[in-house]
Each structure stands twice: as C-alpha cells, then as structure tokens.
Amino acid sequence: MSGAAAGGGSSCLGAAAAASCSSAGGSYAAAAGGGAGVAGRLPGRVLEHIFSYLDMADLMRCSLVCWHWNNILADENSEVWRSLSTRTLSEEALRSDILCNLPTYKGKLKSFQHALSSHDCSRNVYVKKNGFTLHRNPIAQSTDGARGKIGFSEGRHAWEIWWEGPLGTVAVIGIATKRAQMQCQGYVALLGSDDQSWGWNLVDNNLLHNGEVNGNFPQCNNAPKYQIGERIRVILDMDDKTLAFERGFEFLGVAFRGLPKACLFPAVSAVYGNTEVTMVYLGKPLDG
C-alpha cells in the first residue's frame, strides 16, 4: 500500500472513530464494558494512530466512550496530543518559552483554547500569530482591551499574564463579564471602570471596580513595582467567588471577594502603543 493510500485509510478510520465516539458518547454506561463495537477492541497502538487524526472536540468525546479509549487518551504527552499540538499550535508557541510552565501537549492545547480572543477585543489590538500575545497598535487617546476566549462560571482557574513592552500610564489585568466594554476614549483604567469588570493596575498598584479605587494591592509597605517580563499568576475561584494574584510563586493575597454568580472572562487593558501582553491559561491552580 502506498503512503498516500495509507494516509487516506487512516483518515477514513479517524472519521469513523469520530462518528463512533459521537454516537457512543451518550451511552457511556453501555460502552464501558468493552468499547464501541470493533473499534473498541482494536489494539492501543492502532487506536492511538487513529486518534491522532481527530480534533480536540472529537477526542474529548472519545474519552467518554469506554475505559479502554479513556485510558489511551489519559497520557497527556502521547502521540495523539503531540500530533494535535503540531497541527494546532504555532511553531513559535511550541519552541519558545511562552508555554514553559505547561509540561504536557494536552495542557498546551487547552491553553490555546482559553487564550485571548482575536474576535472579542478592541479594534486597535490584535492577537499575534503565536496565538497567545496581544499587540496594541499605536493609536492616540484610546484604551484597548481583550477578553479570553472562554469564561468561567464555576470551578477554580489560573492563568499567567505578562507585559512584553512598556506599561504606559495604565496597564490593568483582571476579569470581565461579556458586557464589559473593551475600548474607550482616553487613557483610563478600562478594567474596573464599571460594575462589569475587576482589575489590578500594575502601574500604581490600585484595585479597581465600578469606577472606584478599592485600595492598594498587595497590602504591604513599599510593594515592588511590576517589572516588564514578570509573570503574574491570576487565580479565579468561582466556588468561593474570589480573585487572587501570585508573583514569582509568592501568593500576594485575595484582591476581590464577593464576585457575582456570572460567567467571568480573563481580561487585560493597555494604553501604550506597540506594547504586547501575553496570557497563558494554566488550568486548575495547585494548592500550597
């Protein structure tokens, strides 16, 4: 069999597996004993090869079909996830240190799914080809922001944000609802300017919400100023309704409490021309 024929056959098998997992996903209990028909009895290496042709959504459905399929997909650094990563992520993202705190291919893919959105942002910014870095165009008298692709209404979530250019007079990180505006005139703290967003201005260390300053953060004497390139970890706990921050593995404390029962998105806002901000979703925060 030629290489082309082999590839075509594998693609057909991949499509069949996707169709099988779509129909079998809803009957997990029935399938749990052995799998989805003939496909469920295939050797692990064969299934892994077939799975390597599927996209993220199909793979997640496949993991629910039976214990055999779930076990194969449990290895987050397997050929399945490596193959999908090389097809989905940019070479820059895979080769640079952007994703250095994500040790698995599946983790890198999930981070890309949660990255800053190129469709939910100010018209004066864009997401670079690496898929994770926001670039602000040099537009005068404008404050520009962006939301993450996915918001959260439950669970605990962590992500890293860092500036790769000057902060200017205002540089805010935090969270926002879908209703919060992502662009306004002038140079202002866009995140925290209304009741739909909560932000920490890295320039003056002020906490902002509903157009008001909610105190300084972190609450210590002579708090150090943010240094360009320094990674800040944001921790959103939708169970306790809190937003907290870490810097250099040092827990800085809870910045906001009493968050609403709503879908909240990671968000940033910037004012400096040609500055860049990178956000990397990490998943569930590690305790301790």
UniProtKB/TrEMBL annotation:
PROSITE patterns: B302_SPRY (PS50188), FBOX (PS50181). It comes from the Eukaryota. Signal peptide: none annotated. GO terms for cellular component: SCF ubiquitin ligase complex; synapse. Keywords: Ubl conjugation pathway. Pathway: Protein modification; protein ubiquitination. Residues 94-286 form the B30.2/SPRY domain. Residues 36-84 form the F-box domain. Belongs to the FBXO45/Fsn family. This is F-box/SPRY domain-containing protein 1. It comes from Myripristis murdjan (pinecone soldierfish). The gene is FBXO45.
